[in-house]
Design goal:
Length: 854
């Protein structure tokens, strides 16, 4: 009886709550009175929200007597209003990057919105993306949202299993500059040696920054070395952290798993992924100060994709995603000192531990000790990664100028371990786990910038100047002796020493290196008229180890009419080889057609490379151009087209491997007791020609809304020239052969198309997304082409606001359970039935998310 009374009472309370709801309506316009289509209107502190229709109108149901509404739209400053009944009218001002507000890459003007930038910029709202999609980390989120961005998880790739390499427009990971709140983010200490993406490159680990801490991501798809410094050949990714001026808590828990059903056997589930995070923001003072803190934990389990059909048997018993435990804490804050000055502090710490599968050593392998592993063994390569950053700065206004003085320190430390392994030269007395050494990269940047806008010069002139001093440190440290040493004393018996799966770094590999960089830039943007903008940037940089360089950028934008805008840029670029590329040295085990081979990767400028005639590394130089148009064809429909050309000269790549039977350098390799050797070299000139297309449409359907987006990247990278020198002169096909060239070209498929439908009605939402990845060609160990055919993945998410503060989302990524083309595992790079290409190789993923906002 009491139970029935409780149920009735609950129903009455619920009915009363629903009965007290009120319908709010209004209109959102810009400063000129034009409707703002697709603006987001959210009841503050809740998940209750909607979007404006083609006339800028909205309706929203609320159960609060006088709710506060937060109205936002890309290119406009956010605005809060109190809804007290009657028609709600909101006029949005264009967003600027003035003191204390947001940064938009591609322009240093304090009064430039992203909508009229002369360079193409993608703005990705992470709050929307994380709520409506199944991906949890930043790399995977961008992989399926931004067509010009490519990243997938590697397996069988040593360190790259733990740090996902990422690229823009098909170039290398180290040719994209990453900023956080407009400040340079440090790179990872890792050099990618295996896998299909980022081979021979360093890059920035985007996954150290939790998605829960990010408000939005800005992707500048244009050469910007003259604006932001070297590394910006392909473009710039700017991560804008969350800020809040009033107390607000957002928390979410996410869980998902893969359905491993690529064969006709029972369904199995693996790769369980658990993510929990909390974000807390609070205002400080009365002048716009805030503190925003994010805690994030992600646990990802192994996937197993080794047991697939293969005509010549398996190369590995364990093959799939690594197991990863990732914990982060991030802070973003600003503290006003006066109306004209503030202090800002942001940064964070990330701790990551991973287990990745190495190649199988079968029972009869001469690298196995049957007394320890009678059935053979599968080594596990472990990672222990510490990444931290801290930025402290002061912004101030004086004499009409905006000044920004900051210091930025970042560090990435990567330590290898090996377990479930052995050192065969120790026989049955060998340990089974090893400390294999590692490396660390640190940077410290001191910068001072000044910006001023002159509104009386024609239609507006913006000037910006700045200087920057950067110091970088690189350290490679050895592992324990048993991880690399060969204890065999019998010259008549060949036994391989070191830890199986990943030989440790040796004392001869260890090094400490550093360098300094000084940069100075000037930037000007002139609005000749309301229709015509011209811009120019000039940057001087001097590296202590590479000398000086002067780069420039020219840009223009012209509004033909109210509906069509033309834009174009031309720029030069420069990238010095990373300290890791210059100083990395290692002897590792590679598997060629399933057979282990010891490979020496010799440090540049070492006695070995000098003897073999490998020249010293020098800087890469680039020229890039972008021509595009933006158009709003009627209410709610917009088009963006951007064609680009990027030429890179003296690109740093990882060469092909030379065997110890080579007629020229073979005797030297035999003397070094290695089966093969490869090197870093400025071996290639590349040329990229491509097109970015974005079509967006917003349609009001009664009280519902349908937002549709078609975004595509078409990219064609060609290798124009291969350079050799010294004792290897004239051997271009062997120095940087077709196989290694194929890995460079596979940094991105030739095209990638994203079609998304986002539907909302009341408390219900649905997102349907199709992504087409074009074909990718690699070359197997026999020299035959491996043609990975085009694939289309389908994502579906259904969401429902249970209350104003609680939202549930469920769905599936890769709903069609699509896999890449399969090949003989003994002929692939990583020993699986496919290499890490296109959309990944884990199949269908189911997920559920519960998010609360207070």
């Amino acid at each position: 009886m009491r139970k029935n009374i409780a149920v009735v009472a609950l129903c009455l309370v619920s009915a009363t709550a629903w009965g007290q709801s009120q319908t709010l309506s209004g209109r959102v316009v810009d400063a000129a009175g034009r409707p703002v289509i697709g603006a987001t209107v959210v009841e503050k502190g809740t998940n209750n929200g909607t979007a404006t229709d083609n006339a800028g109108r909205f309706t929203l149901s609320s159960r609060t007597s006088s709710p506060r509404l937060v109205v936002t739209s890309i290119g406009f400053a956010a605005q809060e209003v109190t809804a007290e009944g009657g028609e709600i009218s909101v006029s949005l001002a264009e967003a600027t990057t003035s003191l204390g507000t947001v940064q938009v890459v591609g322009s240093r003007s304090q009064n430039r919105s992203v909508t009229d930038s002369p360079s193409p910029v993608d703005i990705i709202d992470l709050r929307e993306v994380t709520t409506k999609t199944g991906q949890l980390d930043v790399n995977q989120l961008l992989q399926f949202v931004a067509p010009s961005f490519n990243s997938n998880r590697q397996t069988g790739s040593d360190g790259a299993d733990h740090v996902d390499p990422a690229t823009l427009r098909g170039l290398g990971p180290d040719q994209t500059l990453v900023l956080v709140n407009g400040k340079r983010q440090h790179q990872s200490a890792l050099v990618n040696l295996f896998g299909s993406r980022g081979r021979g490159n360093t890059g920035t680990d985007l996954n150290v920054i939790p998605a829960a801490s990010i408000a939005r991501i800005e992707i500048l798809r244009d050469g910007a070395a003259a604006q932001y410094g070297s590394d910006a050949i392909a473009g710039v990714i700017n991560i804008v952290l969350k800020s809040s001026q009033e107390e607000e808590i957002t928390t979410s828990i996410n869980y998902g798993a893969y359905e491993a059903s690529y064969r006709n056997d029972d369904k199995k589930y693996d790769g369980e992924n658990l993510n929990a995070n909390i974000n807390y923001g609070i205002g400080v003072g009365t002048k716009g100060g805030f503190v925003n803190v994010t805690l994030d934990y992600n646990q990802r389990e192994h996937t197993q994709r080794a047991n697939v059909p293969a005509s010549d048997g398996l190369a590995r018993r364990e093959y799939g995603d690594p197991q990863v435990n990732n914990a982060s804490v991030y802070l973003n804050s600003k503290f006003p000192l006066s109306d004209n000055a503030l202090v800002y502090v942001f940064g964070g710490y990330n701790k990551r531990k991973g287990d990745a599968y190495a190649w199988t050593r079968f029972a009869d392998d001469d690298r196995n000790v049957p007394a320890i592993y009678p059935n053979g063994f599968d080594p596990i390569i472990t990672s222990d990664i510490d990444d931290g950053s801290a930025v402290v700065g002061v912004q101030a206004k004086a004499g009409g100028w905006d000044f920004d003085l900051s210091n930025n320190f970042g560090s990435n430390r990567f330590e290898y371990g090996v377990r479930n392994s052995l050192n065969a030269s120790l026989g049955a007395s060998s340990p089974t786990s090893f400390d294999a050494g590692g490396f660390q990269l640190q940077q410290n940047v001191i910068g001072l910038s000044a910006t001023r806008n002159y509104t009386t010069v024609l239609s507006g002139l913006n000037l910006a100047f700045g200087v920057e001093g950067r110091r970088e440190w690189y350290r490679l440290f050895a592992g324990e002796k048993a991880s690399y040493f060969n204890y065999n004393t019998d010259p008549d018996v060949e036994v391989t020493g070191g830890s199986q799966g990943f030989p440790g770094f040796q004392p001869g590999d260890a090094i400490e290196a550093e360098r300094d960089n000084f940069g100075a830039y000037a930037d000007a943007e002139l609005s000749v008229s309301q229709q015509w903008l011209v811009a120019a940037a000039l940057r001087f940089e001097r590296y202590s180890d590479f000398g000086s360089t002067l780069n420039y950028k020219l840009a223009t934008r012209y509004n033909l009419n109210e509906f069509v805008t033309l834009r174009g840029t031309f720029s030069t670029g420069f990238r010095a080889p990373s300290l890791a590329q210059i100083n990395f040295n290692s002897t590792f085990t590679n598997f060629i057609q399933g057979e282990p081979v010891e490979v020496l990767l010799a440090r540049n400028n070492s006695a070995v490379t000098q003897k073999l005639g490998i020249p010293s590394l020098k800087q890469e130089r680039s020229v890039s151009a972008n021509v595009g148009l933006t158009s709003r064809l009627g209410s709610g429909f917009s088009v963006t087209l951007d064609g680009y050309y990027i030429k890179v000269k003296d690109r740093v790549v990882l060469t092909s491997q030379f065997a110890d039977d080579d007629p020229v350098i073979g005797p030297d390799l035999v003397a070094l007791r290695v089966g093969q050797a490869q090197f870093f070299a400025n071996a290639a000139d590349t040329r990229s020609l491509g097109l970015d297309v974005v079509l967006s449409h917003s349609l009001g359907l009664g009280k519902s809304r349908l937002n549709s987006t078609l975004a595509a990247n078409v990219n064609n990278l060609k290798i124009d020239r291969v350079r050799t020198s010294g004792r290897l002169a004239g051997r271009e096909e062997e120095f940087f052969g077709k196989r290694e060239q194929a890995f460079v070209k596979a940094s991105a498929p030739q095209s990638k198309v994203n079609l998304t439908f986002d539907y909302t009605v009341g408390r219900f939402g649905a997102l349907l997304r199709f992504v087409r990845f074009d074909k990718v060609q690699l070359i197997d160990w026999d020299g035959a082409p491996m043609n990975y055919e085009a694939r289309i993945t389908t994502d579906l998410t259904l969401s429902y606001a249970l209350t104003n503060h609680l939202q549930l989302s469920v769905g599936s990524s890769n709903l069609g359970n699509v896999y890449p083309t399969m090949f003989n595992p003994q002929l692939t790079e990583t020993g699986g039935a496919w290499d890490p290409v296109q959309m990944g190789a884990n199949g269908r993923f189911y997920f559920a998310k519960l998010q609360a906002r207070f």
